[in-house]
Amino acid sequence: MNRLLELFASRPDQYLSGEEISRTLGVSRSAVWKQINRLREEGYVFDAVPRVGYKLAGKPDKLQASSILAKLKTNKLGRPLFLFDQLDSTQNEAQRRLSEGAEEGSLILAEEQTAGKGRLGRSWHSPPGKGLWMSLILKPDIPFASAPHLTLLTAVALCRCIRRLTKIEALIKWPNDLLVAGKKISGILLETRLEEERLVSVAAGIGICVNLEQADFPAELQDKATSLMLAGGEPVDREVLLVAFLEEMEHWYELYLREGFAPIRTVWEALSTSLQRRVAVGGVEGMAVGLNEQGALLVRLDDGRTVPIFSSNIAESTPAG
Ligand code: BTN
Question: Are residues 76 and 101 in the same domain?
């Protein structure tokens, strides 16, 4: 982080005189003044009181890699972090990075996506500065058939993190949509690469509508989608949410690698809005009663048979090169 910002962060809500800043940072008063002006241009707000000093009164709502990394306490997830002002899709960038050998934990984030991808070939609306649009690279040593576990695990981590941080009672709609009061707040898209029946890598694409206003959604999503800000009545700090999500995700991911799918299944079932309801999925209709060990939704048909339905959410990407 910028040393001047670090200094203000270490003395929250305090006025610091120009002299004190220049002494602490070992730079001239005019260099301090120039830096403050440069930060103002980036959207930082400083209260300046003559003969008292400056107080940091506001930060730009722009994600900053250095600030995120300074707060992140994960072992692996979120490192290295690649942050872009604009991308076509973080999933596309993840594939490009994977082709160059990106390591597990790498995170690709974009303030805006111009061609955000949803599942089933749909597009994903990703306006600038108001959401978290990201792709997380994972390389678990698991069979390809276990890929659905990762989708469900990501939904559990995100749902738990939102509940903990905002008190919003998000629920999971099978397989991995997050809903609040029946409206979608987040979507997850997994793209996998495989070799001989084993997963080589996964790009877990996660979109969270954080601070979108109602008018930010296109007409066709007006009554289907919402944001954490609309649902909770106040803006959510995207950096705080991102860091909390990565930490929660790492907790569930490590638990999964140690103990398998069973603990994830229990929590997914407890957070699900799909169970004990009639559903029409995968060409069948019936009562959703739970998940099986592979992560398929178990649907009890009207004739009494129970059938597993696998998510059509997982796209297989073609490894380049
Ligand atoms: C869905 O259809 O529900 C899945 C949406 C996934 C959207 C996210 S946003 C970040 C990542 N990049 C993309 O292009 N898509 C995913």
Answer: yes
